[in-house]
Write a structure and sequence with these properties.
The protein has four helices and 14 strands. It is α/β, with parallel strands linked by helices. Residues 1-21, 31-41 have a biased composition (Polar residues).
């Protein structure tokens, strides 16, 4: 059984951090774990997508993975805890991706302790303790699909062009900040995903998060969940 939680970053001072945590499920955010941090490297392979010249993918890229995508949980500022359906999705996922604005260290500890594997970044509302443990940009390859995670991508105007330029070697870019769900594909084939927020819908009609799967170098259908 996998029990590692990985946080992989581009920033040199925060690059490729891996936390090992014992399996288990905390009852609430307030039950914080104390992970033992150490460093490890993540291999970066070829990217795929229209408009790119890349080597052929490996025929074997690992088992399928079920992914839960979250962002802007703002615990406990906007909610005392994640909604029950989100915790159920955490339990069902092989990998949880969080695009920042955790707000509390306890939120990171709780999700880290319960998720099989966690990939996360800090957001603009995250303080020094969270920034010491999380990168600004995380990169990970899952079943042959190359993901990057970042909190902010700027204005929606021109977003696809900016992100294609900034992340030329990535298949899927997960971001947050706006609390507004986003799912599009750029002209270069980069998939952009923002899951919204499961706790702070702002002017949106529902709270949201995403699930997806990856298998043999392909991202499967992405589902936006509403609550």
């Amino acid at each position: 059984m996998k029990t590692n939680t990985e946080v992989n970053g581009d920033t040199p001072s925060r690059c490729s951090r891996t936390f090992s945590n014992a399996p288990g499920r905390p009852a609430r955010w307030s039950q914080a774990a104390s992970p033992d941090a150490n460093r490890s490297n993540v291999a970066v392979g070829p990217a795929a997508g229209r408009g790119r010249t890349v080597p052929e993918r490996r025929s074997v890229v690992g088992p399928p993975e079920r992914i839960l995508i979250l962002s802007d949980t703002h615990i406990p500022a906007r909610a005392r805890d994640l909604p029950a359906p989100v915790w159920e999705a955490v339990d069902a996922a092989d990998v949880v991706i969080h695009a920042g604005d955790w707000v509390s260290v306890a939120a990171l500890d709780a999700l880290q302790a319960r998720a099989v594997r966690l990939v996360g970044v800090f957001g603009n509302n995250d303080g020094d303790e969270l920034r010491a443990r999380l990168p600004e940009v995380a990169r990970v390859e899952l079943a042959g699909v190359r993901f990057a995670v970042v909190h902010e991508t700027g204005s929606s105007k021109g977003r696809e062009k900016r992100c294609s330029t900034a992340y030329p070697d990535v298949d899927v870019l997960v971001f947050g900040h706006s609390h507004i769900p986003w799912d599009s594909t750029t002209v270069t084939g980069l998939r952009l995903l923002n899951p919204g927020s499961p706790t702070d819908r702002r002017r949106r009609p529902t709270h949201t998060w995403m699930t997806a799967s990856v298998d043999d170098g392909t991202l499967g259908p992405v589902t936006l969940h509403h609550l």
